[in-house]
Amino acid sequence: MSPDRWILLAPILWLLAIVLGCAGRGRALARAALAAGAAVVVLVALWQLPGGMPWPIATWPGVIGSRFQLAPDALWLLLFGAIAAFFATALGTPSRNWRSWVAGAGLSMLGALGCFGLQDVTGFLVAWEVMSLGGAVLLIGERLGTMRNGRHLLFMLALLEVGAVALLAAMLMLAHAAGSLDFAAFDNVLSPHAHGHALWIGVLLLIGFGAKLGLLPFYEWYPGAYGQGSGASGALLSGIVLNAAFFALERAFTLWLPGGGLLAIVTVIAGVSSAILAVLYAFQEDDWRRLLAFSSAENAAIAITLLGAVQVFRGEGLLALASLGFVVALLHLAGHALAKGALMLAADGAFHATGSYAVSQHGLLRRSPWLYGLGVVFAGMSLAAMPPQAGFVSEWYTFQTLFQGFHLDGLAGRLTLALAGAGMALTAAIAFATFVKLVGLGTLGRPSSNDAAPGVERSHAWSCGLLGLLVLALAVGMPWWLQGLDGAMASHFAGQGSAALHNGPILVPLTDTFAFISPTLLVVVCPLLALLPLALLLRARWRLHGRRAPVWYGGCAPPPRGTTTALTFSNAMRTFYSFVYRPASEVRHEHSGSPYFVRQVHHRADVSPLFEAAVFRGPTRCVQWLAQKLGALQSGNMNIYLGLVGLLLVLILAVALI
Hints:
The protein is mainly alpha-helical. Helices cover 66% and strands 4% of the residues.
């Protein structure tokens, strides 16, 4: 079997895992099948990059699509999503109810693979629905959230179905224009001057794919759904599933729709607004999974912003700058999949050790293998855009792409990209504070004397550490990794290549006269530069003998532990941005017999969802009112049923007579 056919082993292994999960037998074998399928995908993607899979694989016509073919950009996103999926499925869920999790994981990855490779409308929409169903099955059986009534999962499915309807409408409009259901016929089917038609289709595609990517207002299902599952589930949803959704969106925008126009500006505005709001809400969370869920929406929004910038540049024929934004979006989601996978598995490690996903100071790093701390710090640095990690490289490239707006002739495009750069700066600043909070409060600190929780298990520590090292490897090897995107650039922007994005180990945004960095050299130079302050510190310790003294607490008695809480850390931001958060605070007292003697004080502080009341509550109440009114049809009253049958006969006779 040729190397491009090896990819068929992955769905076979995942189907085996689904069968084992449904049968409730062979937990270890089911996890091994899931992980082996992800490993096959990783090996095939590494083998086929940068050229893609040149020979399409035939499937069953009319059932799951007529062709299966992985483009170079699909292989790139699939590669890094599958790496995180390998570690997540190998470790599995910490929940005892593993059967539904195994089946859901298999369905999610099977659907994601179909979204990457199936080449017609019918097959793609089936794969999209399988991926959505798999996500729900993945989460519904774990029951690791504080609220276990299923409301959050129903909310997720409802919003995803809104997106599915929008996708169906957009693809039917494209199929009508192309006269075919095959994606190959969609390429450049719309005239460059048909901006009105392209705007409606583009908005429908943004709604459809944005429902899964967490574009506003759809990101509000993220924390509730992620908070019901484990970190392993979050690693799958934030990695291979999110990458599949973005691949479908970027293929539609760069190959099917013309560049420029109002759609490009709308895409940039939606991406920037979503990134800012998502990271603001991430900063206020005190649960590992909910915080990382909002962070996933933020990073997806950054990639969508870059996609909008690509459309702006395409509209004015600046294909070199368009290819820059396209590559940066792919780089950003590659680093995000690895870093988010590391932190999601770190969350599971914290749950195993403490029994909770709360972001609080338990001193995990003091009692865990060193690889756990390494993975958490490296992944947190990447998502906070700190050098020399992969997130720093992709966000640096993001700013360089947006700063190139001065090449545009139109005032609207220049102003849009300038404001987008300011929005990205605000997003990066809040993201930095968010991951200082997560890493600092979630892993550091000195445990109390009665906190006897053990350290993180070795399996989670090793998985987290290896993913963290892969984040660094992606950044350090970026000049060589870029060569894997040559095929993607050539297929979307003829004549463009990655050679213009690096000069040896130096990374440049098309030209080294504009800006440059080198994470490859930083890894070598920074330890060498650190030798000087370390030498001065050792000399000072040798010559000057230090004296320890207690910390002064303003004349007050020192507290037993110098710790802080997630609420205290984020309260200043909550107060400053109260017009966004609309914070609520409640204090409740419990008395012991007499109202003068307080036994306990309960304090609850929360923030309100921005779109829940304005967008979702109205339709929800309408559906509930309609269901209440139609409830009489299920009363069991025979007279009502006979009346309905009689009314139906009258209508049939009326239609026949007409």
